[in-house]
Design a protein that fits this description.
This protein is α+β, with helices and mostly antiparallel strands. The chain contains one helix and five strands; from the N terminus they run H-E-E-E-E-E. It starts with 8 loop residues before the first helix and ends with a strand.
């Protein structure tokens, strides 16, 4: 018998292993990216919810008793501070500062119409 030492098993196994590692690493990277995006999306939705809830509370205060110049609302994962400026004409500017427990701070401004007693414009500063 003749010995055949050319061999094809090792290169074939090596190629299959490299393809598997490339496939596996790409899926792991995609999973980590999706996980990070889901976390960021949840954080943004939570911020929007806190701003919306605070604006609705401020509108109710404004319609019933009038608004205080400074105040804050505490939430589970953060604290919302607001500060109202003196009215100019028929509009009043209120600055909102959201401080989350994670250390993130978001600033927004709302413009309220005194006659309508509602918010007419919203700006988020970042």
């Amino acid at each position: 018998m003749r010995k055949n030492e050319k061999g094809f098993t090792y290169p074939l196994t090596l190629c299959v292993l490299i393809l598997f590692l490339l496939f596996f690493s790409s899926h792991v990277e995609r999973l980590l990216t999706e996980k990070e995006m889901a976390h960021e999306t949840a954080l943004i939705l939570q911020q929007d919810y806190y701003f919306l809830t605070t604006v609705k509370k401020i509108e109710k205060l404004y319609q019933s008793t009038g608004i205080q110049l400074k105040g804050s609302f505490k939430y589970i994962n953060g604290k919302m501070d607001y500060q109202a400026e003196t009215p100019i004409g028929t509009s009043q500017k209120i600055s909102f500062t959201l401080r989350l427990n994670s250390g993130e701070t978001v600033i927004g401004r709302g413009y309220f119409d005194i006659k309508l007693k509602r918010m007419v414009k919203w700006l988020e500063m970042n």
